[in-house]
Amino acid sequence: MSTLKIAIQKKGRLSEKSLALLKSCGINIPNGTASLTAKAKNFPLEILYLRDDDIPQYVEQQVADIGILGLNEVLEKQKDVRQIEALGFSNCRLSLAIPKAQNYDGLSYFNNKRIATSYPEILGSFLKEQNILASIEEIGGSVEIAPSIGLADGICDIVSSGSTLLTNGLKEVQVILKSEAVLIASNQLSESKQQLLDRLLFRMRAVKNAEQNKYILLNAPNTAIAAISDILPGMKSPTVMPLAQEGWSSVHSVVNENDFWQVIDKLKTAGAQGILVVPIQKMIA
Ligand code: PRP
Ligand code: ZN
Fold it and tell me: Does residue 284 fall inside a structural domain?
């Protein structure tokens, strides 16, 4: 029987959440990322802990079958791999930033300037598209210190909370790309590995759906049930059960996180009381 090999980041912004995703898919992984690989106990999956920058290449070369990494690295490395699914965590952006004290009056600021980055491909095509003539100083890490040591006038780097820019006296002036964790796969998966990937994907989608939705319970007078059902479509339609108190019912449904507060306001206006909202662990449509 075959084993699917998944590459995840060994240490950094993505590593904890990648492991957490596998765990919430019910995959039991022995503790610690001290060794380079680990075998899951209850799913034919081997985990390879690698630098995220190297994951596209390893997946292209089939050292790993699939990988979890930032979209930014996938687009930068341009390897022959398939993008399977956006995973909805580790959201960040690739941005241009300059020293805080500088006046910024638009992209033309960067004409004849030097920009330090670990993303020369993405930055290069962006500058070309925008007709900006700047020189790109490619460096592997600690890009944020480049302006203060005189290596560059600005930087192009990943911004997440913004604290790296803040502590280095820089300000974000232009977003180039929005990024999040994605699942990639080799273009040469055997049929049995593709089947394992499909099983894993099924679980990942159930987890993602669950995270984006909440289970909601409320009480309402029977006269308000029709209006409340219109506000709460649920997976099919809401469950309505009579309460011991005459003329009242309990209504159960699922709401999307994005519409959440808006829905709650409407429910209250429609006559809902005692609203409870609880997390969902897995959701299979
Ligand atoms: C990025 C970037 C900064 C940090 C920004 O590194 O290079 O160091 O994240 O995050 P903040 O806005 O929350 O301070 P990344 O995690 O991509 O690490 P890597 O380049 O070393 O893989
Ligand atoms: Zn990296």
Answer: no
Q: Are 77 and 185 in a shared domain?
A: yes
> Does the CB atom of residue 157 touch ligand 1 within 6 A?
yes
Q: How far apart are CA 158 and CA 94, in angstroms?
A: 4
Domain limits for position 147: 92-179
How many domains does the chain divide into?
3
For ligand 1, atom 17, name the residue with the nearest CA.
158
Phi, psi of 260 (to 5 degrees): -50, -60
In this structure, are 84 and 185 located in the same domain? Answer: yes
- Shared-domain flag, residues 78 and 97: no
139/194 same-domain check: no
Nearest to 179 by CA among 262, 271, 71: 71
pTM of this prediction exceeds 0.70: yes
pLDDT digits (tens, 9 = 90+) for 71-93: 999 999 999 999 999 999 999 99
The number of angstroms, rounded, from the C-alpha of 195 to the middle of its chain's C-alpha atoms is 24
Residue 285 located in a structural domain: no
Decide if 88 contacts 183 (C-beta within 8 A).
no
Over residues 162-175, the pLDDT tens digits come to 999 999 999 999 99
Going from the Cα of 163 to the center of ligand 2, the distance in angstroms, rounded, reads 17
Determine how many CB atoms are found less than 10 A away from the CB of residue 117. Answer: 25
SS3 55: helix
